[in-house]
Amino acid sequence: RDICWIVGSEGIVLLSTDGVAWQRQPFPEPVNLTAVRAVDARTAIVTTEDGRHFSTADGGNTWSKIP
């Protein structure tokens, strides 16, 4: 209940694991992100404005494009 992911313009990805403090996670491209689906603090999929999807399994430290 304390885990929250937020995405936004120019590749902004924010993650809170305690419901209080936020950390900006790196994203490989400065594109607008329109959606995020997260399973937990480590696993999430984001959607770019042009419809591409990227996933992370390490809390947003690295991202992989989903074909």
Reported for the largest beta sheet, the result is:
4 strands, antiparallel
Instruction: Indicate the mean pLDDT.
Output: 97
Share of helical residues: under 10%
Number of strands: 7
End-to-end separation in angstroms reads: 31 Å
Order of helices and strands: EEEEEEE
How many helices? The count is 0
SS-based structural class? mainly beta
- Pick out the low-confidence regions: none
Radius of gyration: 11 Å
Shape: globular
Strand arrangement, largest sheet? 4-5-6-7
Percentage of residues in strands: 35-45%
Q: Brief overview, please?
A:
With 67 residues, this protein is mostly beta strands. The protein has strands spanning 4-7, 13-16, 23-25, 33-38, 44-48, 53-56, 64-66.
Describe the structure.
The chain is an all-beta fold and 67 residues long. Helices cover 0% and strands 43% of the residues. It has no helices and 7 strands. It has strands at 4-7, 13-16, 23-25, 33-38, 44-48, 53-56, 64-66. It has a 4-stranded antiparallel β-sheet with strand order 4-5-6-7, with no helix packed on it. Strands 1-2-3 form a 3-stranded antiparallel β-sheet, with no helix packed on it. A hairpin with a 7-residue loop joins β6 and β7 (64-66). It is globular and about 30 Å long. The model has no long low-confidence stretch (mean pLDDT 97).
